[in-house]
Design a protein that fits this description.
The chain is 21% helix and 44% strand. It is an alpha+beta fold.
Length: 145
């Protein structure tokens, strides 16, 4: 068997000191995460981030930077995820859009509200990348091509 990490993207969107999060059902549990998902064939990382954000939240966004690239091996399934997390500015919201299967709702949460839900985060990477963003970690979009 060949080992191959899953390539994923996520997006941090902050507005009025609140972060756009997805409340979703994953592995039989209800959890919070950034809008995130897998890279599709013939798609760039930036296209994937914009698409996944729209599909999971109904928000159209403009990418403005990159927070980082992380590896995470999920203890639940042993899969390694290679995740690029983007920073985005919200442009418009389509309230009538049907969200992806498994998404309960998209919610704006303050950092404190995210901390209160720490035991409900999809993975430790969810809070880790927000903390990195809050410390000012930023890279230009060009680092991912």
């Amino acid at each position: 068997m060949t080992w191959a990490p899953h390539v994923t993207v996520a997006t941090i969107i902050e507005r009025d000191n609140r972060f756009l999060m997805v409340y979703e059902e994953a592995d039989g549990k209800k959890v919070y995460n950034q809008p995130a998902g897998h890279l599709d064939p013939n798609e760039t990382l930036t296209q994937a981030a914009i698409r996944e954000t729209l599909e999971e939240t109904g928000w159209t966004v403009e990418l403005t930077g990159v927070v980082g690239v992380n590896l995470y091996t999920a203890p639940s399934n042993g899969i390694t995820y290679f995740r690029t997390t983007f920073i985005a500015h919200p442009i418009s919201h389509d309230q009538t859009r049907t969200l992806d299967t498994g998404i309960i709702e998209a919610v704006w949460l303050s950092y404190e509200e995210i901390l209160e839900r720490k035991d409900q985060l999809r993975s430790p990477m969810t809070l880790q990348i927000i903390d990195e963003y809050r410390t000012g970690r930023r890279f230009p979009l060009g680092v991912v091509g």
